[in-house]
Amino acid sequence: MDVTELNKLSQLFQEYLSSTGVTDNYIKYILTGSWLIFTLTACWLANLITKKYIATLIKKVIQKTKSKYDDLLLDRNVFDRLANLVPAIIIYSMIGVIFEAFPETNIVEHLHKLLSSIIVFIILWTFLALLGVVHDIYNTFSYAKERPIKGMIQIVQIASSFLTVIVIISILFDINISKILTGLGATAAILLLVFKDTILGFVASIQLSANKMVATGDWITMSTYKADGTVIDISLNTVKVQNWDQTITTIPTYKMVDDSFINWKGMEQSGGRRIKRSINIDMQTVKFCSAEMIERFKKIRLLKDYIAEKEQELVNHNNKTEGQSASESLANGRRLTNLGVFRRYLQEYLREHPMTLNNMTFMVRQLQSTEKGQPIEIYAFSKDQEWTNYEAIQADIFDHILAVINEFDLKVYQLPSGADFNPTNYRNNSL
């Protein structure tokens, strides 16, 4: 039934009311009230049919399909939002009929503007839900973590919302859109200032995605913001990092490009996690190995072959170059040192350790001597990258090192404490 037929029906109803003796003033209000009740009833029925029956039928059809993508339309309530257009369009169509008895007023024009704005808003509301569906579908692909598009989706959302506001203003105030845009051009500097972070965030999000600098799930460290944990969200304006103490650090997206940060993704993909820690040896305990020490070292399984090989090598070298003088002084010729044997022991111990990787960089090395002793650094990679397990493996290794170091007549350097200067302890140590 179109508007012309409704107007004819309204005219017939008006003639009937006149024939019953109802005055013209009352006829206007009766007609208006009757059409208003009819319109609201039609809207209620249309909304009921659309949401309860048509939308339910669509949901059942979608749930039976094998594809998971169409299920996202239901999760985002796309059809429920779209269904709101039906009553809005019905009311828009009926406004002229409802207030036909009041042609002297501008209420029809004003209500048409208002309803047009509502229809435009519903379209925007539905479009935003569709953008959410696009984002959800994109996130189902494997490369989504490396190239997130949340920032781009938010830019489209902001742009579409901005354009919708312009259209609604144009409708409500009868202003040409070109004039609105011209007016906005005059305030461009203010808009740039207001949306500075948004613009910078948009550019930064493109750089982060294109260069694969960071993705959701990456472990990053950014000391400037005291962030050390897993990235849980990358949006247009912010990057959220859940720290290991379960706190959340929020970092402006553009700062991820302006400032430096560490992404541990490479370490995680390598299959190992680096152990890089040193222990300081008291340099006063470093010495040449005596015959008794060498015999003792031969009983250590990890050193047995090394000592035998090294002994023969040193004997051959000293006989060839030093002759008899090698036995006259420890300074003559080459000799084993307890520190060198200890380093070799650590190499063999780590090589045999079940939780270290031998196919990655692996060494036990001396660092520059300091006033705190001679540092011996362990540089290896743990098979287990999980933090607690990694720390346990590292602690076990150094527990063993601290316990076994006395076997090589070496001592760990330790700064003296107050107890070391206690006269009682001094006398006991002297005895």
Short characterization:
By secondary structure, the chain is α+β, with helices and mostly antiparallel strands.
Q: In words, what does this structure look like?
A:
- With 431 residues, the protein is α+β, with helices and mostly antiparallel strands.
- It folds into 3 domains: 3-208, no CATH class; 212-269, SH3 type barrels (Roll), CATH 2.30.30; 273-287 and 337-420, 2-Layer Sandwich (Alpha-Beta Plaits).
- It has helices spanning 3-19, 24-64, 69-75, 78-83, 85-98, 107-139, 150-173, 177-186, 188-194, 196-210, 255-258, 265-270, 291-298, 304-321, 325-328, 338-352, 387-404, 423-430, and strands at residues 219-222, 227-234, 238-243, 248-252, 262-263, 273-281, 363-366, 374-382.
- The strands form 2 sheets. The protein has a 5-stranded antiparallel β-sheet. Strands 6-8-7 form a 3-stranded antiparallel β-sheet.
- Strand 1 and strand 2 form a beta hairpin.
- Helix 1 (3-19) crosses helix 5, helix 2 (24-64) runs antiparallel to helix 5 and helix 6 packs antiparallel against helix 7.
- The N and C termini lie far apart (116 Å).
- The model has no long low-confidence stretch (mean pLDDT 81).
